[in-house]
């Protein structure tokens, strides 16, 4: 397979389901190259790490959207992503990120450990003998955790999975007009939801993140709305994929599952290796503001650089035998949470959820097993499963 065919396969259902053979072909071609679609692709761990931290790179923000798509605000799915910190540059990004980080404190996150464990225990107890792990656990746990942080009432929680699924199509490089319409509808519903919650918290402040962000006063009305939608959606969509991918991997490798079951203190290394082996976020893009040269390749100002995080995480120059799942690797450090100024704000929370939940599932359900084929989500950027059938055995 030549590298352009390999690249093209990432945009088709078949190739998307297992992008790793294609990543190998395109990484062997070049660490960075321009494809016929004019986009640049970055394939190695070293360059991905470097570009994510490079302050001459920027994200496409609202001013860029104003130029190439004057009507973008009419699609409220697109608007809620573009107006959030995820697609904002300094100085706005610095201000918004600082306000969010001041509310999303290590103390507040650490205090969630007991909530996570209690919710996980509850979900395990309620799990039927045969279940879809995504529906019975991988979604409800992170939805419950982020909703507890934001102060979203229990009764509203089941509603979010489909809305997040519809909204996040805007992160994909390719989407249909119908999908964009669904994203618009989901954006409107989520915005209306948070308009209500913000008004409520202004009247009745609570000990939650929504109140803290409202009271911080550093964000404009539209920034507040977009970032609450982002925190909710980013807070569970990727974490659900981490849990689903992680459990599927462990149950496919019974010796690894047995080892983690016998020694839950190994969970941090297991979670890092799961993140490396099959990253829940597969790519992100930056724009070069200045021309530069790398490995003899001239990259012009304005180049759109797509960083293939999943490829970087399987780079043989960084990881021995990269296609092997090996939690004993030294110094794993995947790029799955990005890097630099936009490094994932929720990384400590996502890690903690997986580190608590995966060993707990294995110890409480010693006979837990896969029950037929799992179904891949039909997405390139947010990678995971839509269904992981399991049998649970009895709770111990
Ligand atoms: C940003 C991945 C969980 C909130 C990011 C970025 C990545 C990422 C790759 C950077 C995107 C870029 O640079 O373009 C993940 C993964 C997760 C996860 C793999 C789970 C396994 C979470 C959770 C939350 C969260 C639990 C919130 C509770 C955010 C926010 C940003 C972000 C707010 C934007 C940061 C900024 O732009 O400054 N995430 N994330 N994420 N993530 Fe996460």
TrEMBL record:
SUPFAM superfamilies: Cytochrome P450. It holds the Pfam family p450. Keywords: Heme, Iron, Metal-binding, Monooxygenase, Oxidoreductase. CDD domains: CYP164-like. It comes from the Bacteria. PANTHER family: CYTOCHROME P450 YJIB-RELATED, P450, PUTATIVE (EUROFUNG)-RELATED. Belongs to the cytochrome P450 family. This is Cytochrome P450.
């Amino acid at each position: 397979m030549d590298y352009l065919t390999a690249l093209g396969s990432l945009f088709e259902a078949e190739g998307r389901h297992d992008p790793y053979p294609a990543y190998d072909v395109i990484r062997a071609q070049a660490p960075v190259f321009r494809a016929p679609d004019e986009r640049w692709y970055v394939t190695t761990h070293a360059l991905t790490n470097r570009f994510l931290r490079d302050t001459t790179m920027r994200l496409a923000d609202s001013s860029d959207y104003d130029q190439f798509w004057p009507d973008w605000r009419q699609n409220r799915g697109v608007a809620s992503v573009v107006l959030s910190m995820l697609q904002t540059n300094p100085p706005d990004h610095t201000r918004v990120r600082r306000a969010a980080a001041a509310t999303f404190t290590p103390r507040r996150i650490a205090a969630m450990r007991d909530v996570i464990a209690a919710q996980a225990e509850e979900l395990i107890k309620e799990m039927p003998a045969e279940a879809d792990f995504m529906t019975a656990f991988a979604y409800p746990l992170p939805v419950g955790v982020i909703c507890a942080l934001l102060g979203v009432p229990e009764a509203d929680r089941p509603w979010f999975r489909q809305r997040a699924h519809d909204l996040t199509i805007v992160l994909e490089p390719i989407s249909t007009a119908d999908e964009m319409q669904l994203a618009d509808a989901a954006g409107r519903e989520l915005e209306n939801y948070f308009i209500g919650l913000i008004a409520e918290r202004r009247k009745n402040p609570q000990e939650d993140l929504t109140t803290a962000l409202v009271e911080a006063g550093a964000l404009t009305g539209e920034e507040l709305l977009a970032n609450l939608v982002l925190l909710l959606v980013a807070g569970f969509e990727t974490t659900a994929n981490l849990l689903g991918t992680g459990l599927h991997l462990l149950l496919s490798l019974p010796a690894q599952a047995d080892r983690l079951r016998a020694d839950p203190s190994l969970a941090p290394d297991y979670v890092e290796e799961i993140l490396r082996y099959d990253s829940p976020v597969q790519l992100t893009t930056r724009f070069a503001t200045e021309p530069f040269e790398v490995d003899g390749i001239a990259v012009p100002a304005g180049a759109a650089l797509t960083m293939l995080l999943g490829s970087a995480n399987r780079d043989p120059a960084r990881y021995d035998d990269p296609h092997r799942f090996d939690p004993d690797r030294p110094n794993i450090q995947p790029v799955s949470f990005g890097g630099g100024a936009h490094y994932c704000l929720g990384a400590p929370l996502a890690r903690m959820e997986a580190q608590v939940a995966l060993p707990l599932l294995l110890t409480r359900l010693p006979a837990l097993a896969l029950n037929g084929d799992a179904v891949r989500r039909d997405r390139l950027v947010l990678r995971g499963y839509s269904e992981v059938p399991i049998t649970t055995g009895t709770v111990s």
